[in-house]
Structure formats: structure tokens, C-alpha cells
Design a protein that fits this description.
about 180 residues; 4 strands; two-stranded antiparallel ribbon; 3 domains; two-stranded antiparallel sheet; single chain; alpha+beta; about 30% helix
């Protein structure tokens, strides 16, 4: 059975939904099996199948998918490192499971309301009063760094932290945004 020119031109390594030939029709094109180079293929938007409109929507969906690829990879990497009881690789939102209207905020973060410019706070952190608090704070900060919540790069502002008791043998980290002026912005 002979195939039509449309079927011969179809890109077989892509899913049907990603093939641009669904949205446009070739003009005056036929395949010639000879050593001569074939003429360039010209396409015209199909009006009956809303070709251009579908192509624009497809391009927008592709850009959106590519934009979320790095965040999705981070999400899957963190989930793969998890155990039954703990997120050893850290945690992040599985943004694609959120409602459509909230997925952008879940993926990129919610914009923060600020009334002033952000501060450039560079005062050094005061050391903890006792050795237990120091070792607990160091282990908590090392855990943050190990999970890539804090990464190396340009530092625009610092934030102080201190430890408060959490039970008998543990401490909770508190980040002091008031001392750095972040709460005022």
C-alpha cells in the first residue's frame, strides 16, 4: 500500500502531538528518489484545522515544559534520596501535582511583597554561648548545606540565627530577620 506524502514526511521519532505536519500542509511537494537534491519544502498554515493557533499553543507548552525541567529534576533527585522516615536529600514541592493555577508559584516561588529595598546586612554572626549550642547549630547548618538549601554564590545580605531548646536534647534554629532589617523591608 502506497503512503501519502503526508505520511512519508511524518517525523517518526516524535509523538504525534509534537509533529508540526499536523498544523500545516505542504505546498506542491512530492518525494523524488534520485541523486538530485530535493527542493526545499514550503508549508502553509492550514485554516480548516486551526493550524497556526495549535502551533502557537504547542510552542507555549514546550517553553513551559522546558522552564520546569530543572526544578522537576531537583524534585525527583531529592525524592530519590529520601528514606521512609527522613528526606535525606532535602525536600521541595512536587509542583506538577498542584492545581493548574498554583503550579507557577509552586515551581518558581511566590513573589514577596516589600515596601522598601532589601537590606545589605553584613554584620558577623555572634558565636553561641555554650559548646552544645555551637555543635548543634553547626550540625543544623551542615545539614542545610548538604541538602543544597544554601549554595555558594554572591552574598548580598546575611541573616543571623540562634538556637532555642526543642525538647531535652535538641535545639531548633531560629533565623532572625529583624536584626538584619529584612522584616522592615
Amino acid at each position: 500500500m502506497a503512503k501519502t506524502p503526508r505520511e512519508n514526511d511524518r517525523l517518526t521519532d516524535q509523538p504525534r502531538s509534537l509533529q508540526p505536519l499536523d498544523w500545516c500542509e505542504p505546498l506542491g511537494h512530492s518525494r523524488h528518489f534520485s541523486s538530485a537534491p530535493s527542493p526545499p519544502i514550503r508549508y502553509e498554515w492550514s485554516q480548516r484545522s486551526r493550524g497556526k493557533e495549535r502551533y502557537v499553543l504547542w510552542c507555549a507548552a514546550l517553553r513551559k515544559a522546558v522552564a520546569g525541567r530543572d526544578v522537576a529534576a531537583e524534585c525527583l533527585t531529592r525524592a530519590a534520596a529520601a528514606t521512609w522516615w527522613e528526606w535525606n536529600g532535602g525536600s521541595t514541592l512536587v509542583f506538577w501535582k498542584w492545581p493548574k493555577g498554583s503550579q507557577l508559584y509552586a515551581r518558581e516561588g511566590q513573589p514577596h511583597f516589600q515596601t522598601k529595598d532589601l537590606p545589605a546586612f553584613r554584620q558577623r554572626q555572634r558565636p553561641p554561648q555554650d559548646d552544645l549550642a555551637r555543635s548543634v547549630m553547626k550540625s543544623k547548618v551542615d545539614k542545610f548545606r548538604g541538602r543544597a538549601y544554601v549554595v555558594s554564590g554572591d552574598v548580598l545580605s546575611l541573616i543571623h540565627m540562634f538556637a532555642v531548646d526543642k525538647g531535652l536534647h535538641d535545639k531548633r534554629m531560629v533565623f532572625d530577620a529583624t536584626a538584619s532589617g529584612l522584616n522592615d523591608a
